[in-house]
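Batch manifest, entry 17 of 40.
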Amino acid sequence: MSFLEIQPLFLLSGGGGIHPGIAKAVNLAIFVGVMYFLVRKPIRGFFQSRLADVRKTLERAAREKDEAAAKMADLDARLDRLDIEIGEIKAQAERESIVERERIQTETQRDLEKVRATAVRDIDAARQIALADLREFTATKSVELAEQMIRRELTVEDDKKLVERAGQELSKAR
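Output type: structure tokens
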């Protein structure tokens, strides 16, 4: 029996005719009732599944939102610390620069002292060499002058006397 046959069913019962709107309403009610009975379990399962999916999606979205907020807070904190770290790095670089400058000055001073000491040693050595050369030159010139003076003032007689005296001294030494 179909739903469309309900109206004739009412007509046969002798009710004298039913208004077509009422028949359609009854047909609709029966159709909706049968449909509800047939599809309520699958629809309930579908909506429960859909509700669970929506809840999972909302929970995941809430978790992701919380994670994003935590990351954002972490990034904000890191940015705040970044200014502090930049300041610390600048201060550290300044301290290292001062230490390096002092080290270079100390090293330069040490090198200057080494150069100065080497120069003093070299000058002393050159002075000693110059003094030795001067003594040698003086001795050589003195001998040459003495020789010239002796040649100029020594006579043949003086030469004989010197030779005799040297001979006597040699014979005494024997």
